[in-house]
Amino acid sequence: MTELDTMSGIKKDSNISRLREIGIIFPLFFFGLIIAIRNPYFVTWENIRYILLDASILNIVAIGEMMVILTGGIDLSVGSNLALTGMIVSMLYRDLPNLPVILAPILGIIIGGICGAINGLFVAKGRVIPIIATLSTMYIFRGLVYIISQGKWVNAHEMPEGYKLLTRVEVFGIPILIIYAFIVFLLFYYILNYKSIGRSIYAVGNNPQSAVYIGIDKTKVLFLVYLISGILSGLSGVLYTSRFASAESSAAVGFELSAISAVVIGGAKTTGGSGKIGGVVLGVLLLTMIVNGLNIMRISPFYKLALQGLMFLTAIVIDSLIAERTQKRYRRRS
Amino acid sequence: MKLKIKITWEIILLILIILVFVISSILSPYFLDIVNLLDNTTNFMEKGLISLAMAYIIISGNIDISVASNMGMTSAFMGVLHRAGTNIWICVLIGLLIATLGGFLNGYLIVRFRLPAIAITLGTYALYRGIAYILLQDTAVGIESESFMYLGQGYIGNTPIPFSLVVYIIFAFIFGFILHKTTLGRYIYATGNNEQACKFSGIPVEKIKIILFTLIGFMSGLGTIFLTSRLSSIRPDIGSGLELEVIATVVLGGVSILGGSGNMIGVVLSLFLLGYLTYSLNLLNIPSQVITIILGLLLVSTILISNFIEQRRKLVKS
Question: How close is the nearest chain B Cα to the Cα of A77, in Å?
Answer without folding.
Answer: 12
